[in-house]
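Reading group handout, session on sequence-to-structure problems. Before we discuss, look at one worked example. The prompt was deliberately terse, the way you'd type it at a terminal:

> structure Sodium:solute symporter

The input record follows.
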Amino acid sequence: MLPIVPLQDGVTPEVSSGPLAIGIVLAYFAVVIGIGVYFYRKSRESTADFWIAGGSIPLWVQVFAVLSVTASAGSFFGYGGFAYAFGAAFAEFVLVAVAAGGLFMMIFIAAPIRRSGVYTVPDYLRQRYQSSNVRLLAAIIFTIAAWAYLIPQMTAGGITIDFVIPQLSYELGVLVGAIVFALYVSLGGMWAVTWTDFFQGIMMFVLTILPVPLVWAQLGVTGTLDAAMQIDPAFGSTSAPGLMHLGIGLVWILAFLALPQMGQRVLASDSDRTARRSFMYMNILYIFSFTLSIFWVAGAAKVLEPNLANPDYFYYEVLSSYFGPVVQGLGAAGLLSAVMSTTDALLVALSASVSHDIPQSLGFDLDERRETLLGVGVTWAGALTAAVVAFNPPAIIGLMTTLVAGGAASGLFPALGLGTWWKRGNSYGAMASMIVGFGTYGVLLFGNVMPVPYTESLVAIPLGLLTYIGVSLATRRPTGEELAGFMEFHSRESFLESEADD
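And the output record:
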C-alpha cells in the first residue's frame, strides 16, 4: 500500500537550453568510462582487486566514497521528494535515521567486517558461523536486495537524462544510463568504482548546496519556508502517519549493516580504523548538505511549482528557474553522480554475490579468471533487467529505496548485527532468522497486509531477532570453529595488527 503522491498529470520541468547542458553530461559520461578503462588492467590482477580494490583505499578517499554511496538517488532525489510530498519534518526525520545508521555501522560493525579479511559480507558470515549454508542464504538475500535497489537508481538516471535530453524520452534515458553504469563497472571493477565515487562524492556535496545561496537571495532564509507553507501549510511539518515514521526510522537505522553497497565499501578500506572514521566524517557532510536541501531547495521548488508531476523533480525545478544551461548541466551531472555512486557499488556487490559467494557455497571452485568473467556478465544482466523494471517505476525514489532497505534489514540484521557481538548465536539461529525475517517482510509487503505503509519492518525485524535468539538457545552451543571465527575479528591481536597497518 503506497501513500498517494503526485506521479502524473502535473508539471515536468525542462532544461532551457540543450547543447551546453548535453555536452557537460556527455563529457561526464566520457570521464567515468575513461576511469573504467584506466583501471581495467589493475582490476584484473586478482579477484580482490575486482571486488574490493585490494582492500587498500585510504581514509581521505573513503570519506567521499562513502558519502557518495550513502547519498544515492534515494538521498539526492529522495529527501527533497519526501519534503515536497510529505513535509520537511518527515524528510528530516528520515535523514536523521540514515545518519544514525551510519553511526551504528561505525561503532558496531565496520571494524569487525574489515578485520575479517574477506571479499564480501556473505563470506564474512560464513567465517563467523563456519557455515556455507549461512553464506548461501545471505548471498541470495544480498542478490535480491542489490538488484531491487538498482531499480530506483535507474529511475533517477532516466529522470536526469530526460531532463537534459528530453528528445530521448524517459525510457531511453534509463537504458542509456544502465549501459554507461555497467560499462565502467565491468571494465574497472572496484578500483573504478572507488575513484569515480570519490569524485562523485565531492560533486554531490557541492551541488547539493549550490542552489541554496541563490534561493536565500531570491526568497530569503525564512522567507522560503514561509512562502512554501503559505502554498502548502503541511510543508513545515509532516503528513505521514506516525507508524510510518517508526517503520522507516527503524529500517534506516539498521539497514546500513545489511545493504550490499555498504559492506563492499567497508571491505575496500585499508584498515578497520579507516572503515570506522570514514563513516564518522561522512555523517557530518551528509547531515549538513541534505538539511539545507530539504528545507530550502525543496521549499523553493514548492514555491516555484506546487504541482510537479513527480516530487523527485524538485531539484530540476529550482535549476530550471534560477540557473542557465551550464549550471543545469552541472546539476544534472551531480544528480547522475548520485545515481552512479550507488549503482556502481550495487553492481559490484550483486556480481560478487552471484559469481563469488553462491558458486563457492555450492561447491563450485571457479578460478579467478572465470569468476571475474562471470561477474562481468552478472553486472550487465543486473543493470539491464533493473532498467526494464524502471521503465514503469512503482513509486517515488525515496520510498523505493526504503522498501528494499527494509527487506535487507529484516533478513540480515539479526545474523549480522547481533551475531557479530553475541557469541552464543549459531548457524541454525542465523539461517532461521534470515528465512523468517526476509520471508515475513515479503509476505507482509506483497500481501498488502499492514494498515499503514512502510511498517512491515516493525513486525519482520523483531520477529527475526526473536527467531535468531530462540533458535540459537534451543540448539547446540557454537562449536570451537564457530567461536574461533567469532574471536578472529574481535581479538586484541587482530586489533593491534590493524592499528599497526595504519
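Points for discussion. First: DSSP finds 23 helices and no strands in the chain. Second: Confidence is low (pLDDT under 50) at residues 1-8, 492-502.
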